[in-house]
Amino acid sequence: MDKFEEMHFAKLDTDREERTGFPEVVFCEGKPDKYLVEIYKKLYEKDGCVFGTRASLSQYEKVKEALPEVEYDEVSRILKVGTPKEKGSENEAKGYIAVCTGGTADIPVAEEAAQTAEYFGARVERIYDVGVSGIHRVLSKKDLLVGADCVIAVAGMEGALASVVGGLVSNPVIAVPTSVGYGASFGGMSALLTMINSCANGITVVNIDNGYGAGYVATQIYRLANK
Question: Residue 174's CB: how many other CB atoms inside 10 A?
Answer without folding.
Answer: 27
